[in-house]
Specification:
By secondary structure, this protein is mainly alpha-helical. Helices cover 67% and strands 4% of the residues. The chain has a single domain, classed as Amino acid/polyamine transporter I. It is built from 16 helices and 5 strands. Helix 7 crosses helix 12 and helix 8 runs parallel beside helix 11. It is globular, with a radius of gyration of 23 Å. The termini are far apart. One of its GO terms (biological process) is amino acid transport.
Amino acid sequence: MAVELQKKSNFFMGSHQDLEMFDHSDFRKNFDDDGREKRTGTLMTASAHIITAVIGSGVLSLAWAIAQLGWIAGPAVLTAFSVITWFTSTLLAECYRSPDPITGKRNYTYMDVVRANLGGYKILLCGLAQYGNLIGISIGYTITASISMAAVKRSNCYHKNGHDVKCYTSNYPFMMIFAAFEILLSQIPNFHKLSWLSIVAAIMSFTYASIGLGLSIAKVAEDGHNVRTTLTGVTVGVDVSGTEKVWRTFQAIGCIAFAYAYSTVLVEIQDTLKSSPPENQVMKKASLIGVSTTTLFYVLCGLVGYAAFGNDAPGNFLTGFGFYEPFWLIDFANVCIVVHLVGAYQVFAQPVFGFFEKWCSNRWPENGFITTDHIVNVPLVGEYNMNLFRLVWRTGYVILTAVVAMIFPFFNDFVGLLGAASFWPLTVYFPIEMYIAQSKMPKFSGTWIWLKVLSWACLIVSLVALAGSVQGLAQSVKSFRPFKTQH
């Protein structure tokens, strides 16, 4: 039996007696200084959120990306994106509270931070970039998870019938299965309740990245292993034409940019941290742990994967099909990918849910369908606050992302497009501009100049990567054959 609750509010607002109650020690245990629910996030949970967000499907395409760039440019580009992402993340962490990074007012979302520090039309630009990217990542993860689920079926087919058999498998049923799981998990009320899911997902990401690395090392160590690698990657006239080399290089840069995409949820992750020690200090440490850990895995997976497959590296080295045996280990790795992406989907979808639900609550505050919770007794779980609007809207969102994934099931092209489109505005431009504004940095000072140069250089890189990804996506759409696994 559902029992109706009173209309919810995001903030604690009340009478003088309410404020006196807020001073009570028991009340303080449950609420922060701004009247919101007490945050419990720590360095460990924030690091887990970051690793879950960063080590994702991007790691699977790094061997292919290194193959396009070669032994020199490949590691250089990986290192450059790593350092830039870490540096701009520290700038963004400083802007979480404003005007002072420690004692200022909390900003709960990326858009709130932009509103507090920049204002004007840049708020709209930020919203378009951030939420467009978050929706795109939800679509990309649906594609990737379905490919990994299909790869389990294909792996068993190859093991049973031989490696020369064409084991075609449709991704569409697996997209539906993945969407069904996400519909259930999407009913988790907010980001603050996701710590356990992120920790599980982070463990899974380490597991499948380690399996891929181990299999690559084993392949390199095989007797008679002989693949062609070069300092400059795929060779013009041998592997690709001159035009293809240029476009593939741009696409590879986009794939690497996507591999480091987590700035879109950095503020939301920081908003889960306890207020003591200061959130900016903890977030800087978490960013260093998260980015350095993932970079180590990326370099190992990308370089060892390239050494294992050479210039013929598949777009996804666990589903490409780069490995056939031991088939059970390939299956386990792909199951780990799916479990990880089930959690990672929520890390990126929850900010979208929160933004839209907050907007609707503010727009129609008297609408009971939107603002009223109901207590439902769930077996084995206990009491659960169910909101009918949340149920309907979140279910519709998951279904929509699954439908778009079915229309564009192209792994490398899609992740490259997302990475190229979001890297400059969200990872570089806004953090730099907000830091300059908050610190009141003088124009044309030394620091101001080199920050601007960094921003413009990253814009150029993002534009060429975006061009390459659009070209690759157009080619994939042109040659697409439905009902065959895309990889």
